[in-house]
Amino acid sequence: MPNQFDVVLQLTSGHLPDADRAVRLQEFSRELGWRPTDRLDLPALRRIASAQLLVEHGLENSAVVSFLQSPKQYSTLSSEERHSILSASYNNLVDWQVAIDGSAVNFVYVRTKVPTQVERREFSRESYENLRSEIFEQVVGRRPSPNIPALDDALIKTISLWKRSLNAELGNVVTNAHLARLFNALVFVRALEDQRRRLNPNGEDLLLQRWRGESAPANVRTLLSGVLHDSVGTNVPEFLFREADLEAFDRLDRDTVQSLLLDFYENRFAPYRYDFAVISKHALSRIYEQYVSLLRQDETVQLSLIPQWPSEYTDKSQGAVYTPQFIARFFARFLREQIPPYQFKRLRTIDPACGSGIFLRTLLEFQCDPTTDALPPDLVEAAFLNTAGLDRDANAVAATQLSLSLLYLVLTNRLPTSLSVFQKDFFDPGPVPPQADGQFDAVLVNPPFVSLDVQDVETRTRLAEFLGSHGGGRLDLYLAFLKHSVERLRPGGFGLFVLPHSFLLSKSAHGIRDWILEQCWIHCLADLSAIRVFEDTNTYVILLIVQRKSENLASPRATIVKCQDQVGHALQDAIEGKRVEGKFYSIHDVEQSAFESDGWLVLAPTETAINRRLSSLPFLDEFLRVPQGVITGADDVFVLDNRAVPEDEPSLFIPLLRDREMQPYTVPNREMQPYTVPRRTSQSVFFPYFEGTKITEKMLRSDFRKTWEYLLSHRKRLEDRKALARYRRAWWEPMWPREPNTLLRAKIVVPHLVIMPRFALDARGR
Length: 766
Description:
By secondary structure, the protein is an alpha+beta fold. It contains 26 helices and 25 strands. β2 (49-57) and β3 (61-68) form a beta hairpin. α1 runs antiparallel to α2 (18-32).
């Protein structure tokens, strides 16, 4: 085994042939704990860094490792040279650069206006421990506060600005589809341009050069078309670019077009120039959020001589959110660990709600691993042909096609002639393209979460019909995707799903849970409900991995991950087979029989033991009725301080015992009197019963006039309650006041949510 000091010296020498450089990078990574995910072959940087490697530590912390060309040292690099190597990190959506010279390793944080060298550690032939990945993990904990946006956020801000600006300039006539095609074309042409610049570092910015030239194209459409065809040299597939799609932008002012082009070269929010040849799929996934956000003109009565910019909003009925990269990498890595290498590279895979294509692209990156030396063209071709994607949104299909095409370009240095990505509505009964039909080795999907409240009537009907006897109650659209995906798996195939946490316990999902247990084994269930997975939504999620049952396979134990923090470390440990119970996450195995209960509880091992003990005890409702207290639906109106209660005699307001007024349970005293509720409470609640009978509006008007006047003064607030029509309540009624014979009787009371026991006795039913 070579000394790692010698390996570093060889890598920084700049004299190694490509094959030897690859071997040395593998030796460096393997022995020092780094996980390489890509080799960044950037000839333009060879005079500064002789080799660059994109690595990850866990599923969340990544860095670009640069071996500086000897005798250069990071401390002596010019500002321009530093900027050149650090931009490789920024454009790969990585916050860290690990710059290694002949005697020291420099840990640099790139997301500050002036890049921050967090630490410099020396190493030598006798002591090279400071090169180990564990040191990087320690340094990451001291990351500075970023003051420039990450690449994806910068692009999102740029696209958001231009979507609204172009819409306003063209008189609000361009559609979301027009805008998506324009941005797709810009990203595509810029990626080709930057890919070519790798071989010719001094190449011109073709789009800007031609737009400013003497024989400049008439509009942005012909500009993009001309540069694209000159760059490719062959016919460009129509699924990637159609000149006619951009006719809507022919009227753009020339200065507007120039400003637009500049914003796709120079990052207006950060000091790094864009390199679209290396921009990651995660950035493209985030950008897709801007493609699907719609534009609307806000109503105003104010006159304006300048066209108003529209605002953006998301159509929640589509359920479209981007998938974080760490989830896509977890799914891809799981498949790689479970399936023999030969079969893994030839998997038949589909994502039936592909969005921006992050699952498909990430899996293809693992199948066509760019860190390996031998990557036959036929293997790349087969992997792409075996990968299918469907989505109902044409913008999503275009985003996926763009992402996969850019990966294909990087791997083969040419464009694909076709891709198996199609626009197809899940509920459309029409024929499915052959490439997306039949059974698959793996189905990966983050299905749309669309609750009953935002479904249209047609979707509700189709959803109920599709789920049949397996559905019931308030059905969410994701359940149909889940069932359909499992049906597409061949025996032994894997389904990998991002699902809402409610799937584990909700009654509406009970039928599908039982059906999945009949059809599949559970391989992994990761509860990420304590983690904010989707940045702009409050949905709590789980990751579910199942395998279609096969007679040739034995029933596996299921891995349970319960995560409170450090989700990347937790998922990485799960893949590596580690079993942990710690402060931030726990990982343990259970038998398939653990999922046979009504709900699938995800508990840590200690909690599982407690739950097993509690489950052996009788339930409280075997001895007592356990109803909930009053739910008004408008506490700010129906609940009043005692001194503010309308002065009717008799009164329809009764004493309200709030959670905080319920005192902890105490042992009975010598007189055997248990702790009782307070003699007086500070508030009262409107209770629409008199002498045990529910009052009518007529009685309320005539017999309780001051109460009626008070309610009338808040009529609009009460009428705005969305649940009134659904539950057929009058506008003046509390939603669930409970019957007097349930509420006003001797009872034990306890807060609805408690950490410690807080029982009290209302012996007289006050």
